[in-house]
Amino acid sequence: MPGIRNYSIQQFQERLNRFEISYITDWNVWIDSYNNHNIEVAYIFGIILRRWQACRPNSMRRSKNENDHEPPYLEHLLHRSSVFVDNLVAFDLRDINSFCIDSEHSLKQLWNIFTDLSYRGKARNGKAGVVGISKAVLLLTKGRVGPAFDSKVRQNLCINTINNAQQWINALKYVSEDIISFEQNNSCSIYDATPNRFSTLQVGRIYDMALGPGITA
Length: 217
Fold this sequence. Notes:
This protein is 53% helix and 2% strand. It is built from ten helices and two strands; from the N terminus they run αααβααβααααα. The protein has helices spanning 9-17, 21-35, 41-51, 74-86, 101-114, 130-140, 151-157, 165-186, 190-193, 203-211; strands at residues 59-60, 118-120. Helix 1 (9-17) crosses helix 10 (203-211).
């Protein structure tokens, strides 16, 4: 089966330790900015998502001060999404019961909001897809809701396409079941299996690192 369920603790740690360093640096910059309510948080949000190629090949929206396109700007998307991000503050991928009516509603609303993350391009009539949406939500939930479903992660999970909010939620449920199986098979939590240098990360981010791009990829 794809995912992490059949990994030993050592194999899991090796996967985390091979994660691309530049993504770790970006994550630390984001968390520091977000936690400290940096006034340029929308600008930093945009820089990191563009660096992560979240909307390729479409053009991604920018912050208001950059004034590169008509509204909405990234600030508007962050404002619209804030209530739904707050509703997911107790969301836990290690607990399948976290997928309740309220949390699934919030996830669907976040999907709808962040389809506007891009505004121009040939793909999806200019709209953002699962890569951009899931990366945006991963950032805004500080790693609670993950992974980011880029091509590498989808390949490792044997998921071909995710085209709508329900398919995204179903993929997240699969991830939740995968994590639960990993913990049962190794008789420890995913947090206990994670190297100490990543001990402050949330489970969605940890899982994203296990399946995401590595330094030898």
